[in-house]
Automatic annotation (TrEMBL):
PANTHER family: DIGUANYLATE CYCLASE DGCM-RELATED, REGULATORY COMPONENTS OF SENSORY TRANSDUCTION SYSTEM. This is diguanylate cyclase. Keywords: Membrane, Nucleotidyltransferase, Signal, Transferase, Transmembrane, Transmembrane helix. The lineage of its organism: Bacteria, Pseudomonadati, Pseudomonadota, Gammaproteobacteria, Alkalimonas. The chain crosses the membrane at residues 401-420. Its EC number is 2.7.7.65. InterPro entries: Diguanylate_Cyclase, GGDEF_dom, Nucleotide_cyclase, Rev_trsase/Diguanyl_cyclase, TPR-like_helical_dom_sf, TPR_rpt. GO terms for molecular function: diguanylate cyclase activity.
Length: 617
């Protein structure tokens, strides 16, 4: 279930600065941490840094509340709901103004607001802090869980000293639960890891205390004696702490002489620290010693002085224990009434403590509920954030999809248009080509008049129409000579000019056909009258012979001979017979001297010869 518990580089930097508390003052660490502000990039990094800044600020401003400094000043995000780091900051501020009950509530809240998303460096700090809060509230399960988390993260980061300190605290919890063997074993583990002299002293004192609680007084006594020897003339407080506990053991073991000697020595030393807890504790030891010696008055006075200190400083739990011992001692010395009073006071105090514990428990429960609510809020907030992000991504996707569709549609339309244009162009080219082919298949390439192929289909389309027509078959006279004299190319030119001249007078209903080499056919659809046919023939003859043809700077005079016939369009075979007849008329025209026309104006009339401008019957 656990995520990666190793510190990142950023966390390591923070850690090394905050752990320099033995050589640096809080304000120095505070300033050192400020230099890391720009390196915090994520929200969690900001929270970790802000928690330490806030905590160090509170340490510098103990008993001087500064309402102008809100948590937001430490970079806690206003956007997201408060998190564990924020509560730890608030806790530090409450401690600084001595609001310990509220501070302890916030300690609960801070620890229970932790999530796997929080940085290991924040989690280890808050977990360790919480061990004490939870123990004081009697929430031993919570305390053990917090200790385990602290140990786990310490192990993941090779923080031996931290792991040792946590184990030392865990041992005390185990001892309080009556698991003395486990407590001693945990304490041994701690002793192997701890190197710092202060921590080492405390852990050894813990061991002696556990042994004392387990009623292993001789072992306990040896440790206390060793600690006493180590600190004599070196550290008064350590000497006093070890000494006070040792007097208790001497007393319990009936070693009254040693007890008296030590107690006197301790009191002499403790008096140098008026108002201190060590003085109060020493006075309790002294009171018991005096009572044992029979000096009841001095003993009672001494105990009262100590009792006042405990009451003033609300250190009630040890006081209730001392009262019980005191009552026991009074009873043994025969002061039954005093013993009863002391015992009654002790019980009253125990009741008060229990009530206070219950309050503390209620506080803890409240804190748990609040933490759960906060976690839910945080989760909701993150979900909303994720939803917002997801929506954004979806919108971007939709936009991209729309763009893709639009692009695809555009490309499709574009390609369709292009394909359409290509088809159009191809169709146009094809139709042009077809037109061209059509033209080429129906026309004579030299003169551009219709060819015989066209005429055949034309006649076929008119088969049996019964329409009247006038057909002229024209042949250029002595054309071979033109070729011979002026060249074949000039001959071609002559053919072109002749065809143009023949076509110049034709109407849309009339057509001209290149019939052979120098032969042309003129087809006149539904001629009006015979006179008009004669005029046509005359006009055709004069159109050619009236002016020479100008080719290659030379004038070539040309005449034509014509065979003609006015006819009715019936069957093709009949038409072919008639064409042969026309051909024979043409032949006759040649025979009769050329430059003339011979034919029928009516199939039933006689043959007619037309000479240039004159008409001969
Ligand atoms: N330059 C040219 N000459 C052609 C073409 N087609 C046919 N000819 C020539 O036309 C001439 C026809 O000669 P012939 O049929 O002997 O008759 P002719 O010389 O016209 O004499 P008559 O018809 O008897 O008056 C031939 O010499 C062909 O070579 C052509 O397309 N171009």
């Amino acid at each position: 279930l656990e995520t990666n518990l190793e510190f990142t580089d950023f966390e390591k930097k923070i850690w090394s600065k905050v752990m320099s508390y033995q050589t640096n003052k809080p304000e120095e660490i505070y300033d050192a941490l400020l230099t890391l502000k720009d390196e915090a990039t994520s929200k969690k990094q900001h929270e970790l840094l802000s928690m330490h800044l806030c905590r160090l600020w509170a340490m510098q401003h103990v008993q001087v509340p500064d309402s102008s400094t809100t948590p937001e000043n430490y970079g806690f995000s206003e956007l997201s709901p408060p998190a564990a780091a924020y509560y730890r900051c608030q806790q530090a501020k409450l401690v600084s103004i001595n609001q310990l009950r509220q501070a302890s509530e916030l300690s609960h809240l801070a620890y229970h607001s932790l999530s796997n998303d929080d940085l290991p460096a924040l989690r280890i700090w808050l977990a360790y802090d919480y061990i004490e809060t939870a123990t004081e509230a009697g929430a031993f399960d919570d305390a053990i869980m917090a200790a385990q988390l602290s140990i786990q993260i310490a192990k993941a980061n090779d923080l031996a000293e931290w792991e040792g300190e946590t184990l030392a605290r865990l041992a005390l919890i185990q001892s309080a639960l009556g698991n003395f063997e486990q407590a001693l074993s945990t304490n041994s583990e701690a002793l192997q890891l701890i190197k710092q002299p202060d921590n080492l002293f405390e852990t050894q004192a813990n061991r002696a205390y556990i042994l004392m609680t387990a009623n292993r007084l001789t072992e306990s006594k040896e440790i206390y004696r060793a600690l006493l020897n180590q600190n004599k003339g070196i550290d008064d407080f350590k000497y006093l702490i070890a000494g006070i506990n040792l007097t208790g053991i001497y007393f319990s073991l009936g070693m009254y002489d040693e007890n008296r000697k030590l107690t006197n020595e301790l009191l002499e030393l403790a008096i140098r620290y008026p108002g201190s807890y060590v003085l109060a504790y020493t006075k309790v030891a002294m009171a018991n010693t005096l009572l044992q010696q029979g000096d009841k008055e001095a003993a009672e006075s001494m105990f009262l002085q100590a009792r006042l200190w405990f009451e003033e400083n609300q250190v009630l739990e040890p006081l209730s224990r001392f009262l019980t011992e005191w009552a026991d001692n009074l009873y043994r010395s025969g002061f039954y009434l005093e013993a009863f009073t002391a015992l009654r006071d002790s019980m009253k105090l125990t009741q008060d403590i229990d009530a206070s514990r219950q309050k503390e428990n209620a506080t803890l429960t409240n804190a748990l509920i609040t933490a759960e609510q906060q976690k839910r809020e945080l989760l909701l907030y993150e979900q909303q954030q994720q939803q917002r992000e997801a929506k954004l991504v979806q919108k971007q996707l939709e936009l991209r999809l729309t763009l893709t569709i639009l692009t695809a549609a555009f490309l499709l339309i574009f390609s369709i248009v292009m394909a359409y244009k290509r088809v159009q162009k191809t169709n146009q080219l094809l139709s042009e080509k077809n037109q061209h082919l059509d033209y080429a298949s129906n026309h004579d390439p030299l003169t551009n008049v219709y060819n015989r192929r066209y005429f055949e289909s034309f006649v076929l389309s008119r088969e049996n129409s019964g329409d009247k027509a006038f057909v002229l078959l024209i042949d250029i006279d002595h054309f071979k000579k033109v070729n011979d004299v002026y060249g074949h190319k000039a001959g071609d030119e002559v053919l072109i000019v002749v065809s143009k001249r023949l076509a110049s007078r034709l109407r849309s209903t009339e057509c001209i056909v290149r019939w052979g080499g120098e032969e042309f056919l003129i087809f006149i659809d539904r001629p009006d009258q015979k006179e008009q046919c004669i005029q046509i023939v005359q006009r055709v003859l004069s159109e050619i012979n009236s002016s020479p043809i100008y080719v290659n700077n030379q004038h070539i005079s040309v005449t034509i001979s014509i065979g003609f016939m006015a006819l009715t369009l019936e069957t093709i075979s009949e038409f072919e017979i008639k064409l042969k007849k026309i051909d024979s008329f043409l032949y006759q025209a040649k025979e009769q001297g050329r430059n003339r026309a011979i034919g029928y104006l009516d199939e039933h009339l006689e043959k007619l010869t037309i000479e240039s401008t004159a008409v001969e019957l």
